[in-house]
Design brief:
mainly alpha, 3-stranded mixed β-sheet, binds zinc ion
Length: 185
């Protein structure tokens, strides 16, 4: 069981392992979107991080909540967007985290059960989306429009980026697959 403070510790150590230019670009995005620096002397930017006890949005497919599917104006649009994203994420063995680049949420069962090395991969994946948002200076879903990518392309780009940083997705997928019953994914 990890509480939010423990989740933040793993988040911070993952962030600290990223290349300096990546960190500064992400911090620039956070800074320009109202995330503030911690005043305890660390000077660190503190993005909102949540450990969700359940799936974030119950109107969507229970496997995931895609934040970048775009503005929706009706329940049916939301459900359709969720179903589409479910097809995309079926190949990713379930959703463990979510970010628009500014706010981070992580699936509670993964936060509770994942060893540090696996949780760091989950976090690095969300930071890869964040870095791509930072490239265009906008949070998702606006970032996806600016980048001109589909959800599938966005996923592949994030997976490639996190691998460059030393957080290969493969071991996480294997761990998720071996533990999917316990994780509820
Ligand atoms: Zn992703």
């Amino acid at each position: 069981m990890r509480n939010e403070a423990q989740l933040r510790d793993v988040f911070n150590s993952t962030f600290d392992a990223l290349p300096p230019d990546v960190r500064s670009r992400i911090e620039d995005l956070w800074h320009r979107n109202g995330v503030s620096r911690e005043d305890n002397g660390s000077g660190r930017f503190i993005p909102p991080i949540f450990r969700e006890p359940t799936i974030l949005n119950r109107t969507l497919h229970p496997r995931q909540v895609p934040p970048w599917v775009g503005p929706t104006s009706s329940a049916s649009q939301i459900i359709n967007a969720g179903q589409h994203a479910a097809e995309v994420f079926e190949r990713s063995r379930g959703i463990c985290g979510q970010t628009d680049g500014i706010v981070f949420r992580f699936k509670a069962s993964v936060v509770d059960q994942a060893p540090d090395e696996m949780l760091k991969i989950v976090i690095a994946h969300e930071l890869a989306h964040t870095y791509r948002a930072a490239e265009v200076g906008l949070p998702f879903p606006e970032a996806a429009l600016a980048l001109g990518t589909s959800e599938d392309e966005e996923e592949q780009a994030a997976i490639a980026l996190q691998a460059e940083w030393g957080f290969e997705q493969g071991p996480l997928l294997q761990w998720l697959q071996a533990n999917e019953a316990a994780l509820g994914i």
